[in-house]
User: Fold this.
Amino acid sequence: MQFKRLAASTLLMLSSASQVHASQQFPALTDKTFGVQVKIQNFTPADAKQIKAAGFGFVRLGVWTENLDVAAYQKQISDAFAVAKAAGLPVLMTIRATEPLATTPGNTSELAAQGALFAKSVLALEQSYRTQLVAIEIWNEPDLEKYWPTGNFETTFVPFMSAMCHSLGSKVQTTPLIGFGFAKAPSAGSASTVALNRIVSEYPKCLSAISYHPYGQTGAQISNAQAFIQQNFHLPGVISEWGVSALNSNGGDDGQASKVSTFISDVEKLKIPLTSLYEWKNSESGGNDREKNFGLQTSDGQPKPAQLAVETLLNAK
Assistant:
């Protein structure tokens, strides 16, 4: 069971972003094109109810493939999906590995074998949760060494992902597949653009959209990124992660709320078919103050001004 691709007529319509409705690209969504990231280990029914009431259309959660054979981890995933389902929230599931994909640097045959294995994990998860999925996103920020532990991105990414696309190619298509959650939007000459040119040209039906994370970018910069993606890869761009920390340097809680409001307004004007905010709650496990304070709520579930700002904008639609 694989993934829905865009019909040629839909691709033509995507050239004019203002004419695109999210349901054409992601049937699980209607007019609620904004979602928010949650952590599977602490996603509660109360969270899901509040997320729905805030006007979000889906939740984003991450799954690590190397833990899929662990019963306790399987239960965390299924419990999180059950919580989302009870609240009527579809799921954007981001799948990646956190360990190196090859034991020998530059071993393309090993990378290809791992790509095929990864595809099996993707298919198994899709089969389990397809009725709840907005889309499956492949990877998270592989253009950062932290999230691509395999080594040199420029030599290892394409062999792995091409093998994955090849393995998925002959399967029945049911769920939109997006990738690859780049930390920076693809741009002229960037490593992500070079990789995408190779993968998309060889496997033009592998992805339904290109996902990226435009942290710190203005509305104009995001608009330019959307145009670049459409023109170069003939696919729409989607934002699978964006946020702003409530640091004093950002104006604290009120500054965070203001920046979130501006971002939502900018994205709505661009008619981007899917956007996920980072994140629902502050993360006590964050490595520093910046990482701990991206939440729309405090870690104990108290609304911050950013949550109220989101509710005002999203429920006005």
Notes: The first strand starts at residue 34 and ends at 37. The longest helix spans residues 108-129. The CA atoms of residues 257 and 306 lie 4 Å apart.
